[in-house]
Amino acid sequence: MDARLHLAGNALATKAITPLVTAGRIAETSSIPVATLELVRLRASQINGCGACTDMHTKEAAHAGESAVRLNLVAAWREATVFTEAERAALELTEQATRIADAAGGVTDEAWADAAKHYDEDQLVALITTIAVINAFNRVNVIVRQPAGSYTPGHLG
């Protein structure tokens, strides 16, 4: 399978995507564990059906020490007992923000309050930035049909 468009070789695509990469890296300077950010990226990518991002963030999370059990249960996190309350709040926020068009009010006050119990203001900024950036990358990759399976951890940064 080939992508419809090879983004890495297109100068305009590079100009457009570079700010997204920068925004994603800024979130990583917060005190939120990298594993939590990878779980957020993975869950949004699963919801959006982005194989390339699911591939990347599964491998990046494993490379950062995340267990296979937790990675395998991200899609069923509500029923899983392996996630902390803070991670569960981040995953709920991720799901509601990713499925924003499915709910008339967007992210519920309850989901926001739960996240705010576990994360300070800077961490919330990092979470919502991470959610927004991964959703943008998911959409770009789904549109161009970016193939999945060949990502090597650390390849992009």
From TrEMBL:
Gene3D superfamilies cross-referenced by the UniProt entry: AhpD-like
Gene Ontology molecular function: peroxiredoxin activity
InterPro entries: AhpD-like (IPR029032), AhpD_core (IPR004675), CMD-like (IPR003779)
SUPFAM superfamilies registered for this protein in UniProt: AhpD-like
Signal peptide: none
Pfam family for this entry, one: CMD
Domain Carboxymuconolactone decarboxylase-like: 27-95
Name assigned to this protein: Carboxymuconolactone decarboxylase-like domain-containing protein
The species this protein was found in: Actinacidiphila reveromycinica
